[in-house]
Amino acid sequence: MKIYHSISNFQNVYRPILTTGTFDGVHLGHQIIIDRLKEIAKNQNGETVLLTFYPHPRMVLFPNDHNLQLINTMEEKIVLLEKAGIDHLIIHPFTNDFSRTTSMKFVRDIIVNEIKTHKLVIGYNHHFGRNREGSFKHLKNYAPIYGFDVEEIPAQLIDNVSISSTKIRQALLLGNVSLAANYLGYNYSFKGQVIEGQKIGRTLGFPTANLKIVDESKLIPKDGVYAVHVEVKGQLLKGMMNIGNNPSLTFKKHSIEVHIFDFDSLIYKEQIEVRLIKRIREEISFNNLDALKIQLKKDKATAKAVLNYEKLDGV
User: Fold this and answer.
1) CA distances from 92 to 56, 66, 127 (A)
2) pLDDT for 94-127, tens place per residue?
3) Is 277 helix (H, G, I), strand (E, B) or coil?
4) Strands 224-232, 88-93: pairing kind
């Protein structure tokens, strides 16, 4: 997959078959659009092109809204789109100036003059241009004038899978990572750098890797204990993770701590990836550390039982 960090860098592609959007999650609903894009490209001897934007438009249009949390970082999105089989990915800078581009200018200057689109494929109810003024109806009017074809994925196809990025975010915020995985077609994950913690877990026989999330816009699921897969230096391992405020400890601070089973190497400053398989329980406050230790043993047994049914990638 070739990557372009501006529309102006995109050129010399034969018969571009284009789709555009934020594609946050690159979920199974998005995959329907991508599969159709690939089918058309194959039948018409073209090449698939996906146009997306960075930063996310809402971050630019509503800079004071700090509630936006994204399913994917751009790094993750690139990996997923490459796996999906996209030939060309354009990541265009989204600015306030760009947000004022009218729908007509977007079609004329970008879709036609810059990308030289042969055919445009969009999901149903797709809007574009200043104030989201452009629609499929506009595209149908513009297409014969500017010499490209346009196709809208039928609502029924998308509705049949009943998936949206909003539904996935809601599932994650409720801690239902299993449902999110069903929507996504893969286990939700995030990356973090291992930092120094309070080392309380080590004294209990449950050493943990304390994580600092790499991308602040990345959605962190609901507090609680999760069964997880962990990738460390290319090695896939099993473990359990706590997201929360450590209510049983005097020192309370929101943290993400991962206990990796049968693993005792020092990995401070390393970046690891955590894939969430299932939420085991809510975060609980215990009267003392002995009670906490007993619960951790139960959690480990539960997590192992869950993970025994989950095959690690490549294992």
Assistant:
1) 10, 22, 17
2) 999 999 999 999 999 999 999 999 999 998 888 8
3) strand
4) unpaired
Q: For the segment 132-141, what is each residue's pLDDT rounded down to a tens digit?
A: 898 899 999 9
Fold of 2-163: Rossmann fold (3.40.50)
Are 97 and 72 in contact by the 8 Å Cβ rule? The answer is no
Structure tokens at 275: 């894939």
* Angle of CA points 117, 59, 191, to nearest 5°: 95
C-beta separation of 71 from 21 below 8 A: no
Instruction: Enter the pTM of the model.
Output: 0.91
The ranges assigned to domains in the chain are: 2-163, 187-307
Cβ atoms of 5 and 91 closer than 8 Å: yes
Distance of alpha carbon 233 from alpha carbon 16, whole angstroms: 38
Q: How far apart are CA 251 and CA 191, in angstroms?
A: 25
DSSP 8-state symbol, 70? B
Model pLDDT for residues 39-82, shown as the tens digit of each residue: 999 999 999 999 999 999 988 998 887 678 999 999 999 999 99
Instruction: State yes or no: pLDDT of 299 exceeds 70.
Output: yes
Residue 127: per-residue pLDDT: 87
Show Cβ contacts of residue 277 under 8 Å, excluding neighbours closer than 6 positions. Answer: 177, 178, 181, 187, 226, 227, 228, 229, 306, 307, 310
Tell me if residue 191 falls in helix, strand or coil: strand
Other CB atoms within a 10 A radius of the CB of residue 263 amount to 16
Class of domain 187-307: mainly beta
